[in-house]
Design a protein that fits this description.
Layout lengths: L1 H13 L7 E6 H4 L6 E6 L3 E6 L1 H13 L8 E2 L1 H8 L4 H13 L15 H9 L3 H11 L10 H20 L5 E8 L2 E10 L6 E7 L13 H21 L7 E6 L7 H12 L4 E6 L13 E4 L5 H15 L3 E4 L8 H6 L4 E2 L1 E2 L22 H19 L4
Parallel strand pairs: 7-8, 7-9, 9-12, 10-11
Antiparallel strand pairs: 1-3, 1-4, 2-3, 5-6, 6-8, 10-13
Helix pairs in contact: 6-13, 7-9, 8-9, 9-13, 11-13
Bound molecules: ligand BES and zinc ion.
Length: 396
C-alpha cells in the first residue's frame, strides 16, 4: 500500500505517463553500448547512477546479452532510491547513494557454525526425490517465458505458492505461512514461505523464478533459473514431508524480476528489514543443473558473499554431498545474493560451474533441459537441506 502510494506520487511528478522511470546503477562500459536515453545523476570510477525508462532497461539487458568483453551487470535500484535516498538533496544524495554500490559492505558472522546434526541431515537426504525435481522442471520450462512483466511470470509465481501450500496442507502442517512480496512496477511477485513460527534468526534459501521476455524467442529458462527454482521446491518438499520441526525459521524464497536488475530480491530484503525479521544466513541457488563435461564439482562464488559462511558451505558439501568443491567469482553483482549482501546480511552462492565454463545457452531459447544433469541438481538440493537443518536446528 505504502509502496504503491509512493510510486504513484513519484510518477505524478517525474515520469512520462506511458513508461515507468527507473534508477539504475550500471558499469560505464555497459552504458557506452546503449542508445536509449538516460540522465546521469552521479558517477564514480566505474559506475554511473542513472535515471532511465523501460526502454533503457531493455537496452541494458540487450547490451549485456551482446557484450563481447565482460563488463559487469546493472542493478535497478529504484526502490532503494525511493526509500533510502529520498531525504537528501538531489546531487549530494545521488553521489553518496552511489557510493554504497561501489563498495558493498563487508559482512561478518555473529555465530560460528559447526556440524551438529549428522543424523537428522542423513535422514532427510535419504528422502530426496530426483524424479520429482525433473518433472517439476519440465512444468516450469514449458512456459514460453516466466518474464516479470508477463502473465506467465505471474502464473509461475502463483503456481509455486499454491504448490507449497498444498504440501503444507497434505502433511498437516500448521506452522507454515506463505505470502507474496510485490515488485514495484513489475507484475510478478516474489513468493516467501516461512517454515516454523519462531522469531529467532532464520535461514534463507532462494532462487529466481523469472526469465527474460519471449518477444523474440521463447525463454524456457530451464537452467536459469528453473534449476534453482526446483532445487528450492525440493528442499520444501523434503522438509514438509519429513515431519521434522526446527527451533529457528526457514524462509524459502522464489524471487521475481531478477533478470531486470535484481529487483524482486531488493523488495524482499526491504520487506525483511521493515518487519525486522532477523536472518543468520542466506543461500542463493541460481543455476544448479549444468555440469560442464559432466563434472559434478560444486562451485562457491566468492564475490558479494560472506567469506566465513562460504567456508561453512564448503564444510557442508564435504560432509554431506561429498563432491569436489572449487571457488570462482562472477566479477559483478550477478544474482540475488548481492541484494542481501548489499544490506549487510551473510550470503552464499553455490553454483553449477566455473564462470568461464558455464552454460552458454542461458537467456536464449536453447536454455532447455537436454543439457542439464539431474544428478548435479540433486546434489544442490541436498546441500540446501543440510544448510537448512544445520542452521535451523531440529527441535525433536
Ligand atoms: N544466472 C544469471 C547469473 C549468472 C550467469 C551467474 C552466468 C554465473 C554465470 C542471472 O540470472 C543473470 O543473468 N544475471 C545478470 C545480472 C542481473 C543483475 C541483470 C547477468 O549476469 O547479466
Ligand atoms: Zn539470467
Amino acid at each position: 500500500m505504502i509502496i504503491s502510494l509512493l510510486s504513484s506520487f513519484h510518477c505524478a511528478i517525474y515520469a512520462e505517463p506511458a513508461s515507468t522511470q527507473h534508477r539504475v546503477v550500471a558499469p560505464k562500459c555497459l552504458l557506452k553500448k546503449i542508445n536509449a536515453t538516460y540522465t546521469t545523476l552521479a558517477s564514480s570510477k566505474n559506475l554511473h547512477f542513472i535515471e532511465t525508462n523501460d526502454a533503457g532497461i531493455d537496452a541494458l539487458i540487450e547490451a549485456k546479452q551482446n557484450q563481447t568483453t565482460p563488463c559487469g551487470g546493472f542493478m535497478d535500484v529504484t526502490h532503494a532510491w525511493e526509500n533510502d535516498g529520498k531525504k537528501m538533496n538531489a546531487n549530494h544524495n545521488a553521489k553518496s547513494f552511489l557510493a554504497a554500490y561501489e563498495t558493498f559492505p563487508k559482512t561478518s558472522l555473529t555465530t560460528s557454525y559447526s556440524i551438529k546434526y549428522p543424523t537428522e541431515v542423513a535422514t532427510l537426504l535419504k528422502q530426496s526425490n530426483p524424479p520429482y525435481m525433473w518433472t517439476r522442471l519440465q512444468g516450469l520450462s514449458s512456459y514460453k517465458d516466466r518474464y516479470s512483466r508477463s502473465d506467465n511470470g505471474v502464473k509461475a509465481a502463483q503456481e509455486i505458492k499454491a504448490e507449497v501450500e498444498a504440501m503444507a496442507k497434505n502433511h498437516g502442517r500448521d506452522d507454515v505461512s506463505t505470502y507474496f512480496v510485490t515488485t514495484g512496477s513489475y507484475k510478478q511477485p516474489s513468493v516467501v514461505v516461512k517454515i516454523g513460527t519462531s522469531n529467532q534468526p532464520g535461514v534463507v534459501i532462494g532462487a529466481h523464478i523469472d526469465t527474460l521476455s519471449s518477444t523474440f524467442e521463447n525463454k524456457p529458462g530451464a537452467d536459469d533459473d528453473g534449476s534453482g527454482t526446483v532445487t528450492v521446491l525440493e528442499v520444501a518438499r523434503t522438509l514438509l514431508s519429513s515431519g521434522m520441526h526446527f527451533n529457528k525459521p526457514i524462509y524459502l524464497i522464489w524471487y521475481a524480476a531478477e533478470e531486470v536488475g535484481l529487483v524482486g530480491s531488493q523488495y524482499v530484503v526491504d520487506d525483511f528489514k521493515q518487519k525486522n525479521i532477523p536472518v543468520s544466513a542466506v543461500m542463493q541457488f541460481d543455476m544448479t543443473a549444468y555440469a560442464h563435461k559432466n563434472d559434478l564439482t560444486m562451485w562457491l562464488y566468492d564475490d558479494y558473499t560472506n567469506k566465513e559462511l562460504t567456508a561453512y558451505v564448503e564444510t557442508l558439501i564435504n560432509t554431506y554431498v561429498k563432491t569436489p568443491v572449487k571457488h570462482d567469482k562472477c566479477g559483478y553483482a550477478c544474482s540475488d545474493h548481492a541484494s542481501w549482501t548489499q544490506k549487510g546480511y551473510n550470503a552464499s552462492m553455490p553454483f553449477e560451474a566455473s564462470f568461464r565454463t558455464d552454460n552458454p545457452d542461458i537467456h536464449t531459447s536453447r536454455d532447455t533441459m537436454e543439457k542439464l544433469s539431474l544428478a548435479h541438481m540433486t546434489n544442490f538440493a541436498k546441500l540446501g537441506l543440510a544448510f537448512a537443518v544445520e542452521l535451523a536446528e531440529p527441535s525433536n
